[in-house]
Amino acid sequence: MQLHKKQNKYTLFSLNFQGIRRLGSLIGEAVAGKNYDYTQGRLSKAIILLSIPMVLEMLMESLFAIVDIYFVSKLGAEAVSTVGLTESLTTLVYAIGIGLSVAATAMVSRRAGEKRYFAASITSFQVLIATILVALPIALSGIIFSGDLLYLMGAGRNIATNMSLYTALTIGSAPIIMILFTANAIFRSSGNPATAMKVLFVANGLNIILDPILIFGLGPIPALGIKGAAIATITGRSIAVIWQLYVLLNGKNLIHITKRAIRVHWKTIAKIYKLTLGVTGQHLIGTASWIGLMRIMAEFGSVVLAGYTIAIRIVIFFFLPAVGFSNAAATMVGQNLGAKNPDRAEKSAWIAAWLNMAFLGAAGIVLILFSHEIISWFINDATVIETGAQGLQMVSYGMLFYGLGMVMLNAINSAGDTSRPTWFSVIAFWIIELPLAYYLAFQTSLAANGVYISIVIAESILALLGLWWFWKGKWKTIEL
Length: 480
Description:
This protein has one domain. α2 runs parallel beside α13 and α3 runs parallel beside α12 (about 300-340). It has helices at about 1-30, 45-75, 75-115, 115-145, 145-150, 155-160, 165-170, 175-190, 195-215, 225-250, 265-300, 300-340, 340-370, 370-375, 380-395, 400-415, 420-445, 450-470. It is built from 18 helices and no strands. By secondary structure, it is mainly alpha-helical.
């Protein structure tokens, strides 16, 4: 009997060890960026190979967001408010960048699924041209009107006058931001998420190193304050974009831009803009709502606004890795629709959704239980900590819905069906979130907490609408 028990223990240990080895091997394969056909083989393996580098990529992005606000918070509540207000404005830039990246994912992943790699390369070049044409006028507007934009957002005179250079530099770097989005989308949709991961590791790693040096000064380098945060970000992102372009042009990947692929196809660019318009519309709808929420919060003063900014940054810290799962779903949906296998595309999205809900659900529990301690890591102001912690707790109750909606909507968009999620966004953000936030904030005793409640309700409704439309399955029939 004892020998039998020992044999069972040994067998169990051996199985566990083998499982750990297989998982380690899979992680190594995913990070190394080996070519893999995502239209065949085990779905679980395909999702893991795509998700791991995408989650790590977004984790690094979220780490930078936290580190950045940590250093900026040392400059005081007005500096944090400036970052928060500027981020509300740059979400317009991000909305268009995300729209272009989803268009790139939808079109490039279809061509990759069809095994038409040269066509995918031509499409990739059109994506870059479309990106530059949109980004340049936005950058110019941000540089010229930065102070006015801050003032319109409800900023005080000191912020609008003395801290507007941060806003000018941030919005002025729109071409860099958007190319970073779209080039990484090309890498992911071609089945090469490891390169996108490495690019963002470089960008955000440099950001994290340069942030304290340029903000507070070091040796001969003067303390630049909040301007230093913007310069650090631009430097890191610029080097990353140079690397992206080098990889796209050097010819070592399945999809690379050769001399033959460098041609302007206005019909393709028009199709990219059509897809972009739908996704950008969704994000602009959300952005307009986001700006409205920031404007409501600004009415309660810099302290409440600072608490809100820190709380939302912390939530974004967990949201960005979760985007990795939804990006994996988008690539799998696009490639498998291109390979004429819609059932595999649907199953991929479901697996990614469950993984995302498990991740964000666990994150929500941590944020609810330790909200005060987490907020206190970033600022030593009892009032800011209290208001920020209350908001963080309330927003975290919706984490399961956020995880579900993120994947469902991204899967639908990547199939080329961008109009329906746009209407869902109108319902969730303009018809529900903004009016509800205004009513709860100014017509009830909830005050600023009413804004947080409106976020949870609106995002949950958006997730349920996305789930309903995904279940109907009409997205499977769209041709690109």
